[in-house]
């Protein structure tokens, strides 16, 4: 068997050369990181859960006509995706005050925002992903004004879908992060949603108890990170209710 060519390795995923031109294989690792890898651990089974949850979300986005890089899941840890030119921005949509927004503006966590807020952060670990404005983005050529408009439109549509999806299973979508990329099809280019959408990239709170069901359990040393991710997967119908996953990782609905 030929060794696959590794294209890129990030904190939580590895990209390999795909089986066809214009495709990549996205592999989900069990690494849990926070504060740009200043905090790091291995959580057995996390990558499996994130792969399946992200697959579930991206399949729905594709069905709704929201363009993404996702093609199909290959196995428990890997997805086949389209190769895109990643725009070096993290796009954060906030519905409820939490995390850095609460610290910056002195707003109590859990406060419902007057409207959803979109923020941009420059993807650079060495600089701790600084927050940037549209002026920075266009001045440094990371994206042009039309691309920014397209990114914001995608972010709003994804927010609308995710808010309804999680509300239906008793979860409050506090905020989330997406990345976008340029998908080239001949001479035509369009902006698509890329990376992943999972409890690693969303803040998810139980509506009744406000229990955190996301990576804040790791960031804040709350414990129970894998169990929280399993809870999200169960509510979405990905993980069987009657299964109690062991250390070998969760058993997921095929």
UniProtKB/TrEMBL annotation:
Coiled coil start-end: none
| Sequence ranges assigned to domain SAICAR synthetase/ADE2 N-terminal in this UniProt record | 7-235
- Which CDD domains does the entry mention? SAICAR_synt_PurC (cd01415)
Q: What class of enzyme is it?
A: ligase
The protein's matches in Gene3D superfamilies, at most eight in alphabetical order, are given as: ATP-grasp fold, B domain (3.30.470.20), Phosphorylase Kinase, domain 1 (3.30.200.20)
Keywords in UniProt for this one? Answer: ATP-binding, Ligase, Nucleotide-binding, Purine biosynthesis
Question: Known catalysed reaction(s)?
Answer: 5-amino-1-(5-phospho-D-ribosyl)imidazole-4-carboxylate + L-aspartate + ATP = (2S)-2-[5-amino-1-(5-phospho-beta-D-ribosyl)imidazole-4-carboxamido]succinate + ADP + phosphate + 2 H(+)
User: Molecular function terms in GO for this entry?
Assistant: ATP binding; phosphoribosylaminoimidazolesuccinocarboxamide synthase activity
Q: What superkingdom heads the lineage?
A: Bacteria
> Known EC number(s)?
6.3.2.6
Q: Pathway, per UniProt? A: Purine metabolism; IMP biosynthesis via de novo pathway; 5-amino-1-(5-phospho-D-ribosyl)imidazole-4-carboxamide from 5-amino-1-(5-phospho-D-ribosyl)imidazole-4-carboxylate: step 1/2
What Gene Ontology terms for biological process does this UniProt record contain?
'de novo' IMP biosynthetic process; cobalamin biosynthetic process
- Keyword Acyltransferase in the entry? The reply is no
Cellular component annotations (GO), alphabetically ordered: cytosol
Q: Which Pfam families match?
A: SAICAR_synt (PF01259)
What NCBIfam families does UniProt report for this protein, alphabetically?
purC
Q: Which family does it belong to?
A: Belongs to the SAICAR synthetase family.
Identify the PANTHER family for this entry: MULTIFUNCTIONAL PROTEIN ADE2, SI:DKEY-6E2.2
Q: From the Swiss-Prot or TrEMBL record, give the protein name.
A: Phosphoribosylaminoimidazole-succinocarboxamide synthase
The record lists the organism as Rhodobium orientis
